[in-house]
Design a protein that fits this description.
By secondary structure, this protein is an alpha/beta fold. It has two domains: 177 residues, Vaccinia Virus protein VP39 (Rossmann fold); 48 residues, N-terminal domain of TfIIb. The chain is built from seven helices and 13 strands. The strands form three sheets. A seven-stranded mixed sheet has the order 3-2-1-4-5-13-10, sandwiched between helices. A four-stranded antiparallel sheet has the order 6-7-8-9. Strand 11 and strand 12 form a beta hairpin. The radius of gyration is 17 Å and the shape is globular. The termini are far apart.
């Protein structure tokens, strides 16, 4: 998932939400100083945007190609390839999961609370008093049967999204121009995600011991339709 072609496209053309989340965190007063743990860090754009005020940071992602890009952007931070639920979360002031990370991790689970609730407890345990958890997921406020396309000079991306119950499958087809030949290489990826109920997620967070505010944007960066962000403080 997120092989070299898609990792490059996502890094260079779809980084606005990570950067928006960084802008949101930058406006918090008193300023955050870290440590910051970015779960599902992708190409490290959030950490790069906060590198002038965060001294210690950790990034984890399932995609080795994304981690290579994150390391190149953030040579002073710590990165690893890992499944979300397998990460040994370091002590932190802030934990982030930007870009439907929990929806990805819970696909195929008939009872996601068995994974999500213990995981939220693990995060809370590692957060400082008053620490922040910031993340977003797909929620059941829209239908996810739709098409999307994007293109730039050297690539075209086609996405077909289908929904069955609370499971979403995205077929992504990428045509990327090879600089040496000018020909296009085709790659295909399938991404599987879980759709959550907003009320249920809010309940899990509250019962875990977080104060919760729901949002539909990170600073000036609006979330795609159906996605909700959760700004949580350790109570």
């Amino acid at each position: 998932m997120y092989n070299r072609s898609l990792a490059k496209i996502h890094d260079e053309s779809y980084a606005h939400l990570a950067e928006g989340a960084a802008n949101f965190l930058r406006k918090i007063n008193p300023p955050i100083r870290g440590p910051l743990v970015d779960l599902g860090c992708g190409a490290g754009n959030l950490l790069a945007a906060l590198s002038d005020q965060i001294e210690v940071a950790y990034g984890f992602d399932l995609s080795p190609d994304m981690i290579l890009r994150a390391k190149a952007k953030n040579p002073g931070f710590n990165f690893g390839v890992a499944n979300l639920f397998d990460v040994r979360i370091p002590p932190a002031q802030v934990v982030t999961m930007i870009g439907e990370i929990l929806s990805y991790a819970c696909h195929g689970e008939t009872n996601p609370s068995k994974s999500v609730v213990p995981f939220l407890n693990r995060i809370r345990t590692q957060l400082q008093d008053g620490g922040i958890l910031l993340f977003d997921v797909l929620t059941d406020i829209r239908d996810y049967n739709y098409h999307h396309s994007g293109e730039e000079a050297t690539w075209t991306l086609l996405m077909n999204s289908t929904q069955a119950g609370d499971e979403v499958t995205r077929k992504l087809t990428i045509f990327q121009k090879k600089p040496e030949s000018g020909l296009y290489a085709k790659t295909t990826e399938y991404h599987h995600l879980k759709v959550f109920q907003n009320e249920q997620m809010t309940q899990w967070l509250t019962e875990t011991g977080f104060e919760v505010v729901t949002m539909q944007a990170y600073a000036e960066s609006a979330l795609p339709a159906g996605r909700i962000a959760y700004y949580c403080r350790k109570a």
